[in-house]
Specification:
The chain is mainly α. The chain is built from seven helices and three strands, in the order H-H-H-E-H-H-E-E-H-H. Strands 1-3-2 form a three-stranded antiparallel beta sheet. A hairpin with a 2-residue loop joins strand 2 and strand 3.
Length: 158
């Protein structure tokens, strides 16, 4: 296994393929508002936009918490939130625990987007299982869960 096929590179390719499939499924989902489907179909929605979908709590999140969860800078996440706000996916609301802070929350359109995302992820996972076989998919999933969990543990200790 040479440098071209090391695990990190394979993981990166797999993640890009998975995210591309999820976006394709969302672009072709009749439940997703047409404007958002068109954005996904024209590749205006990127894996970075998926970070909000993956990391935003249903109760809402502070920008700094959202950035940390997604592994992004606060400024980059702020730009992403602004773009998603313009698309009607999220809105900034007062934080009930801190009058100086704002929380990012899903809008009704954002919740539709989230449900479509969840269905697309489930379908992409099922396709992965079908392509590589259930046993391999289970081992890959368990291995990645252990590997990512160890990283999360190291990050929280730092």
């Amino acid at each position: 296994m040479g440098i071209r096929h090391h695990l990190g590179r394979l993981l990166g390719h797999a993640m890009r393929r998975f995210d591309a499939r999820v976006l394709h499924l969302m672009a072709n989902n009749d439940d997703v508002p047409l404007a958002l489907s068109n954005l996904a179909a024209r590749a205006q929605v990127s894996a970075a936009h998926i970070h909000i979908t993956r990391h935003l709590s249903l109760q809402g999140s502070r920008l700094s918490d959202l950035a940390i969860s997604a592994g992004m800078t606060k400024q980059a996440m702020g730009d992403l939130v602004t773009q998603c706000e313009a698309w009607g996916l999220v809105q900034r609301t007062p934080d009930p625990q801190d009058a100086r802070a704002r929380r990012i929350v899903f809008t009704e359109t954002g919740l539709i987007w989230l449900r479509a995302f969840e269905r697309a992820v489930a379908q992409a996972e099922a396709e992965f299982r079908q392509e590589v076989g259930n046993d391999v998919a289970t081992v890959v999933s368990l291995g990645l869960e252990a590997y990512a969990g160890a990283y999360s543990d190291l990050e929280s200790q730092a």
